[in-house]
Amino acid sequence: MCCAPKKAKRRQQQGEGGSSNVFSMFEQSQIQEYKEAFTIIDQNRDGIISKDDLRDVLATMGQLNVKNEELEAMVKEASGPINFTVFLTMFGEKLKGADPEDVIVSAFKVLDPEGTGLIGLCLILQLYHLMLRMTNLWAAFPPDVAGNVDYKNICYVITHGEEKEE
């Protein structure tokens, strides 16, 4: 499976706590997949993913009106310039404490109606962009006292950019 960290058994073989080297968290084939994704995102090929790179790659996927604040939020997730090692570290950190693999696979199957086991990088980047937007929406549309969220209003804001008048 793409992007899954190595099993804990392998990390234990390196000693308790594992290596501080992020490359030891992944199989070589996974590192190659991340490298290919990094190369696609690094539109200007300078070895660093910048706001402009993100804007350009999102534009190639049809996301033309991405706000500067959203791009800044993406870049600020890193502690500094996003080179490949930082990119890989960010994915490693995101994978810690993730849901079990079968739960994640089930979620992705929704995006793979033909059952090929594959989805495109463009879709992954669109999902990431949507999740960033959703984070902002949760602040704008907090759950009611029963823990429910008005998803129709959220969908309206996602597609129209403004809250619907009641």
From TrEMBL:
The keyword Protease is annotated on this UniProt entry: no
Pfam families recorded: EF-hand_6 (PF13405)
Protein name: Myosin light chain, phosphorylatable, fast skeletal muscle b
Keyword hit for Calcium: yes
Alphabetized UniProt keyword annotations: Calcium, Metal-binding, Repeat
CDD domains xref list: EFh (cd00051)
Organism in which the protein naturally occurs: Amphiprion percula
Region feature (Disordered): 1-22
Domain EF-hand: 29-64
Molecular-function GO terms, alphabetical: calcium ion binding
UniProt-listed Gene3D superfamilies: EF-hand (1.10.238.10)
Ranges annotated as biased composition (Basic residues): 1-12
